[in-house]
Amino acid sequence: MAGLERVRFMVVDDNTHMIHIVKTILRGFGATHVFEARDAGDAFQRLRNDAIDIVIVDFMMEVLDGVEFVHMVRNSSDSPNRYVPIIMLTAHSERSRVMAARDAGVNEFCAKPVTALELYRKVAAVIDKPRPFIKTANYFGPDRRRRQDAKYQGPERREGWSEDHKPPAKEAAPPAEEKAAG
Prior knowledge:
This protein is of the alpha/beta class. It has helices at residues 16-28, 40-49, 66-75, 95-104, 116-128, 176-181; strands at 8-12, 33-37, 54-58, 86-90, 108-111, 133-135, 140-142. Residues 138-182 are annotated as: Disordered. Keywords: Phosphoprotein.
């Protein structure tokens, strides 16, 4: 994952120590533009004023929590960037919280204590394997399906990927003669 020096991150957490840890990890990856916000309101305003490429937000915050922030970014009529990739970072990784974050529209979920490797995987996932966005009557955000489950036979079963909502295609390797010439 080259080129993180051009990616503009925003870390949203009401814990100054946690912001410092995440910023240090991101700088270790080569990131040079790392903004911070201490609450959801400040973060939403920062999205309005700065071109942010990836948001890393804590689940538990005062006033508005991370899920409420994600919902606001994805669904508010005055949202400055409904498509910004959002990584939820939290010590509370119970299934119900993961599902709440997913259903609000997060792209990735990362449990604390955060490791550099795990955060790197989440950042790489939103950059290298972006999922298409879905809009339904009750949801707007990245496609929650990561794979097709042939065994699922429930009432909301989809017949497959629609033309406008396919996972990103893997790039084919260049032909052997291009490799030799390059």
